[in-house]
Amino acid sequence: MLTKEDLYTIEELAKEKRRVLELGMGPLGDNLFKVIRTLGIQLIQIPFLNEGEESDNPLAALYLSSKEEDGYSICYIGLNTTDYWDKQIFALAHELYHHFESSDPFVLCRGLDHSSDIRELKANRFAAEFLLPTEKLVHEVKEKNKGNQDLKGWPTNALLRLIAEIHCDYRLPFKAIVRRLQEVGAISKTVLENLLKIDARDHEGIYYTLGSNINLKAFQQLNTRTNLFGAEGENLGKLIENYEEGKVSLSELSDDLNLFGKSLDDYKLMEEADFDDDLALLFKEEED
């Protein structure tokens, strides 16, 4: 359970990071991937296979910080792309907390919906606050509720429409939005518990129907498992830079590229290696 001091500290941290990164207070959504690049974090997308269709403790993401000999740190986030798109976005924001605050060079994050670990609870709260700042959520509620922050008396259908609009705009998962509404005092604990019983992924359910009618393209994307595999071009470029700077051997680079379905030949590095070998042989013959 987080204390009031914890909640205040996390809210201020989220505000500070948005300010430093010049993000304003509006929706981030897919732009979170640009934030990851801006921070120099290497993003690796891997479809991790969890046991069972819906594991109770699925691997969401992992964070790794590796300090090189020259003191420079390389940071990685491994993102499980078998998860839904909105949960991937939330997991990225969650890992950002570990990037900003954790002294542990390796953090493995499982079951973000059910974690009781204090560090993970803090990371979850940061992700929710970073993606949907309290003041913006309160504004969204008051704008729809004649200036009132309390949604008491709202019918379930109306609540679900509001949640679906926030879902499409801010890209948070359904459960995260529902919890945020309770955190800012917009709904009671009883309403929270009732809403959490709804299967938001059920294509035949009321919530999915409402969300699809609000923004079909965005809503379907958020409810899609991407199953992407690989790394962004910039990140693969970093692997090549490490080789060019002598930090890794050609064979090590080849092994690293193979992890992402790439080869030395894709970057014309085999030709370069052959040329270097020929040049070295020529110099040796001249010396002889």
TrEMBL record:
Residues 76-181 form the IrrE N-terminal-like domain. InterPro entries: IrrE_HExxH, Rad_response_metalloprotease. Coiled coil: none annotated. It comes from the Bacteria. Gene3D superfamilies: 1.10.10.2910. This is IrrE N-terminal-like domain-containing protein. It comes from Paenibacillus algicola.
